[in-house]
Amino acid sequence: MLFPAIGAGAVLVVGGWAMLPRPRSTRLMSIFLVCLVILSLVTPWTVIRPAFAPPRLTSPANAAATVRGRELIYGNVARLLGVSVDRTSVAPEGRLKVRACWEALAPMEENYTVFVHLVGRDDTRVAERHTYPGLGRFPTSLWPVGQAFCDVYRIRVEDWAPAPELYDLVVGLYEASTGERLDVHDAEGNLVKFPTVAQVRVAPRPPLAKLPDDAHPLDYRLGERITLVGYRLSGTTLQSNAPLTVTLYWRANARPARNYTVFVHLVDETGRLLAQHDGPPRYGRYPTLAWQAGDVIPDQHVLMVPSLPLEQRGELRLVTGMYCSDTMERLPVADSNGALPEWLIPLPFSIP
Q1: DSSP structure string for 192-220
Q2: Mean pLDDT by 10-residue block, N- to C-terminus, for the chain (352 residues)?
Q3: Is the distance from CB of 279 to CB of 262 less than 8 angstroms?
Q4: Domains within the chain, CATH numbers bracketed
Q5: Fewest 10 Å CB contacts: which of 51, 71, 199, 282?
């Protein structure tokens, strides 16, 4: 990077020496030459050699002991012994260091490229890295069979990454000229279409502190660890034969003890269900077991409102809550006045 500037720098140095008195210039020249000699002797061993040295080889057992996760086999030629990440939670725009340990199972003629992806909802990649092993110092054609080494990959999370959510860390090998990925199998020989090696939590830092201006503040406690602090509707009124998007804002007072399912129901005065959306928070990408104390989680649910007779519209209710999918038991709900009937939280709305 500095090579183009060497000539200009040399001219400036010589010009500066020419302006100095002769005895002082000779003394400084001697000191400068000694420093250059020392630098030329030290640099190859302290800078150049480490930068171009291949990764250190070790036994597969020793390498596997330093990482976690399942073993994966790529194209019957390479085995991923496991990975480790320097943190389990990162903010958008944050950086993540992934350490992966590999073993060659057979000689490889191709020099494959490693990819590391952080993948979320709808297969959206919010961070990725494509590189040769060892930053190009240890191509796969040089991997010795039966020996292992560990490689480090650094990835940056995009600032637009939806958060808070859990993301899948995916690692693989592919041929750069064709883009074709090597098939992946687990230790039992089963085909793995999506080679996830770990999950990483992406969450804003600090958590959401203020609700959007068009959100309606609430204060309903669900059990001891969750509070519904607000909600927002996609429109100001409820329309027949149209989707209704309800965004709930949950706050984790403490980490929940289990995973819960959120429900948003449109019911008539008799409690008959007219429209609904049930599902884990954030479409399953941030289940309640992943919540941490202080999290504020925007959680979107879309209902398809049916055709409603005019005389029925004034009798509708929009309600929400949580339940355990194993038992279908709802989480108790209370406000400042005590427990709510049927543990249902009302979400007021307007009807045209």
Answers
A1: -SS-EEEEEEE--SSPP-S--TTPEEEEE
A2: 57 60 62 69 58 78 95 97 96 97 97 98 96 93 96 97 97 96 96 96 90 94 97 81 94 96 94 94 96 96 84 78 96 96 90 56
A3: yes
A4: 60-202 (2.60.40.770), 216-346 (2.60.40.10)
A5: 51
